[in-house]
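Narrative of accomplishments. A recurring question from our advisory board has been how the design workflow behaves on a single, concrete structure rather than in aggregate. To address it, we present the structure tokens for one chain from the evaluation set, followed by the sequence designed for it. No filtering or post-editing was applied between the two.
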């Protein structure tokens, strides 16, 4: 299913201490300390999307922006993949801490595109 060009990315995120995050109109959520994996995609401006996620200063637009702006939360790794977003997300181990997070446009019924990883697990990529 790969076309050779990157279309999917995963952000390996570390939450250093438990944090409560208000995610715009989506609501307020508790994120326990640990590692999380966010799976996203971009059809255009792929590297610009990743740079935006890595930037400290940005307008909060997507669900993930709110989590990344919280104190003690940081991206520790970025993975670039050619496999479709939902397929990668389904292959990623872990629990969905917030149903619907990052999945507003998901047509594959993933439930969430953010997963809290088991202690020894890594993102699917």
């Amino acid at each position: 299913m790969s076309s050779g060009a990157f279309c999917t990315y995963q952000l390996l995120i570390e939450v250093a201490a438990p944090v409560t995050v208000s995610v715009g109109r989506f609501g307020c959520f508790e994120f326990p300390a640990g590692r999380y994996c966010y799976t996203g995609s971009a059809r255009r401006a792929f590297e610009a999307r990743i740079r935006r996620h890595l930037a400290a200063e940005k307008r909060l637009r997507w669900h993930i922006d709110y989590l990344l702006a919280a104190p003690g939360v940081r991206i520790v790794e970025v993975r670039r993949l050619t496999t479709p977003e939902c397929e990668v997300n389904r292959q990623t181990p872990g629990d969905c801490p917030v149903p619907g997070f990052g999945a507003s446009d998901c047509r594959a019924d993933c439930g969430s595109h953010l997963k809290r990883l088991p202690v020894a697990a890594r993102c699917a990529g």
